[in-house]
Amino acid sequence: MPELPEVxxxxxxxxxxxxxxxxxxxxxxxxxxxxxxxxxxxxARLSGRSIQSINRRGKYLVLALDAGENxxxxxxMSGQLSVSNGQMPADKHVHTVFLLASGSELxxxxxxxxxxxxxxxxPEEVLGKLGQEPLEEEFTSEWLCQEMGARRRVLKPLxxxxxxxxxxxxxxxxxxxxxxxxxxxxxxxxxxxxxxxALHEAIQTILSLAIEHEGSSIDAAYIKPDGGRGSMQSExxxxxxxxxxxxxxxxxxxxxxxxxxxxxxxxGCQI
DNA sequence: CAACCGACCTGTTCGC
DNA sequence: TGCGAACAGGTCGGTT
Length: 271
Known about the structure:
Elements: H1 4-18, E1 23-28, H2 39-46, E2 51-57, E3 60-65, E4 70-74, E5 79-84, E6 94-100, E7 105-110, E8 116-120, H3 124-127, H4 141-150, H5 155-160, H6 170-179, H7 193-212, E9 254-258, E10 261-265
Helix pairs in contact: 1-7, 4-7, 6-7
The structure holds a DNA duplex.
């Protein structure tokens, strides 16, 4: 579930309670969540490590620790992180708990169990294949237009390709294409310069707006670390609005399956 | 290289 | 009310 804006919101929400904290112990009842590191090894390498910074790369959270270790977490479809004082018992979907020196604990809750935790000395081991950060300076309209022209692919699946641009997921791909008034099935090399500029603008605008709104909380799948909800769901113009009228042209929003994903678009104004 | 499909999981919603 | 099918913010690996 969480895409770039949701992960960014989680990162911001974890900084205050976690930076400067020290790991004491890890408890897990779902070893697969630890992505192949066995619990004793994780325990040994994490115990005594303090958290120096928390950042985001694509949809990954990166906790930089002392002694050159990095704890990297991907929430996939249903992962949630929260910091608890340990008083309230964790519910049955919390599968990994990181106990901290202050007595509080970082809880990784994940109904569908797709989320993963990595502990690596070199973050590139996990993040190495990711593409451009869409809100950073290197993501320019010149770069985007050149890449589009050079590729021969269907547009929406390319936007979801994390090795091309890192962080866009199914909601914001659909929303960016609607804002840019481009049909999701268009071929990348068929875009005009004007369309490509509009797409670049739309990607940056929708992601920034979603961060301002602290992400989209459509059901219980995404909540902030403090338990609150984002408000971006009420700003969405196509995602989840099949059968409703387009705010721009009044046509009825359609939902189709494209590359295996539900795809929402306006047949009236997305050309 | 690109497109497609099942796998990985559990829960919720929808149609009959 | 019950019950199965479809669907869900993501990615990976194997196959055409």
